[in-house]
Specification:
The chain has 10 helices and no strands. The chain is mostly helical. The chain has a domain of 78 residues.
């Protein structure tokens, strides 16, 4: 069996009814590391809820920055279970999740589900002392009476600050 076939088998096993089979597949994919990230990103958009949930959990363990944007977009998932798994995965990313999440807030500001997930993630990162002043302002905006109006603007300012700091480090 080739590595690709083995990965496909494990991805298929994520929807198995047997909990042990799913758990073994999950750990095998986590062990495979960053090589399986593209397949897991694709799995986030499948119509099979259990597979999306498993993919989010695995990506949270692998913590490859290539998956951050896809996880952020998956905060819009209609399944509360998948939404929660995606939120927890992004919390595992720590500060690496902040910029993609801020960009997501500017794109999906009109979604209450998205704002709820963003709030949870930023709140947990706040508890772990991983927010800078600008990102703290975004969390405060999400706590406000009109988060759909204030959060995107606060996110834009935080993005600008992050990009400015990054440009200063590289240039």
């Amino acid at each position: 069996m080739t590595i690709t076939q083995e990965v496909q088998k494990h991805l298929h096993d994520l929807e198995n009814d047997d909990n042990q089979v799913r758990e073994m597949a999950r750990w095998a994919l986590i062990s495979a590391g960053t090589d399986v990230v593209p397949e897991l990103i694709a799995t986030l958009t499948t119509d099979r809820e259990r597979c999306r949930w498993e993919a989010a959990k695995i990506l949270g363990e692998i913590r490859d920055e290539r998956a951050a944007d896809a996880l952020v977009d998956a905060l819009l998932d209609q399944s509360i279970n998948v939404h929660w798994a995606v939120s927890e995965a992004l919390i595992h990313y720590g500060r690496e999740a902040v910029l993609p999440l801020l960009k997501g807030i500017t794109r999906h500001f009109d979604s209450a589900r998205f704002r709820q997930g963003a709030y949870h993630i930023l709140h947990m990162l706040e508890r772990f002392h991983q927010l800078d002043q600008n990102t703290q302002a975004v969390l405060d905006a999400l706590r406000s009476i009109e988060p759909s109006a204030s959060a995107p603007w606060a996110a834009e300012r935080a993005i600008e600050a992050i990009l400015f700091r990054s440009a200063g480090k590289t240039g």
